[in-house]
Amino acid sequence: MSKDTIDLQEIRTIRGMRDLIGKDAEAFCYIIDSLKKIVSNYGYSQIETPIIEFTSLFARSLGEETDVVGKEMFSFFDRSEQSISLRPEGTASAVRALITNKLTQNLPQKWFYYGPMFRYDRPQKGRYRQFYQFGIEYLGSKSPLSDVESITAAYDVIQALNLKNTTLYLNSIGDTESRASYKEELIRYFSQYKNDLSADSQRRLLVNPLRILDSKDPKDQEIIQNSPSILHFLTPESSRFFERVQEGLTRLNIPYRMDRTLVRGLDYYDHTTFEIKTSISENQPSMAFVGGGRYNGLVQQMGGPSIPAVGWAFGIDRLILAFQHKIPPLHLISVLFVKEDEEYDALLLAHQIRSILNTPVLFPSDGNLIKRLKYSDKMNVTCALIMGEEEIKSECVKCKFLITIKDFFKGTEKVIKRSEITNFLYNLFKE
Ligand code: AMP
Q: Which are the contacts of 337, defined by CB distance < 8 A and separation ≥ 6?
């Protein structure tokens, strides 16, 4: 191959990474805007943290034994030989930000964030190596009503995006004391089946038996089915806490189903855990849109004071896949000149309409009028405003309708005085 030829192999995307274009990009923006609006109504404000952090931040907070840390991080050494990682999730960075920005005395903090996350997972539909999350973190509240509030906000998102066939799954993994006695029981139970468990689960049996409940291995799944339930091991305080969460959801009419194996994939959770799942199609397993819960020990574990917290993260890629909502049509206008002589008048008109009506205006300037009309048609322009010699002389604009709107049929034309054009368009587009 000559030096000048580009090797197409080299310019493909990396496995598990994709471009969001057209409808997907439109849905992405719509979903992010809806999420922002919903969580703002609950008093959350935006934070931005770096996409890379020290590897130790994630290893310490998510847990060495988790799949995310053990197998899925994009980690590498930078030029100063420091191990850094692309963030696999947002909570660790938010907690780091609370500590490093000295905000631990300034509580509560209610934060939302969104952006790309990276996990070296096996790519499939709805599972990517670069995916997008939108998350909230409510730092500094220990009340079970904060759990209710945070789950309610997630439920609002599902309603606002009109997602069908979803179920909210709920569990409690109790406090440290509840988990200590539960872990003992789990070790006793799983040890009976030690040789039948997957290699990962065998290793986890002694290190972190709770992680076995997370296993997707079909053989493990069978054994997990009959495992003891954490709910029988909750201390009276943990039990009371969980009852109050359930009571809150019931009072707000939010339906949920208990799932005693819902321990979530990361080590920092305690008390409430939850997920909202759906089946994307009949032949596909259900997948989670959002997952979250309480993490009272994490801030302290990372070197800060003891600060209770609760949060969740939505997977935006999965919301895009399930999103059926019709985004309200946006009226597009195009301004077209006939010959070069009219180009500046047309340019000025496009500029004026854009600024007076605050509406999108296309100004295609390549090719001839036919080509520019075809382009306007392809872009679903509602009406093309045409300026030729005749229109300029008579201080008019020819309005050609490319879509039927109100009394104007597709293909018809109307000549309008230049001084009245913005008024005409305003009345045309108003509901
Ligand atoms: P987690 O941070 O694992 O609790 O995940 C929260 C949400 O992020 C999940 O419910 C998914 O919707 C989404 N998510 C997690 N991993 C991926 C991935 N590899 N690709 C797409 N979405 C993901």
A: 343, 345, 346, 347, 365, 369, 386, 387, 388
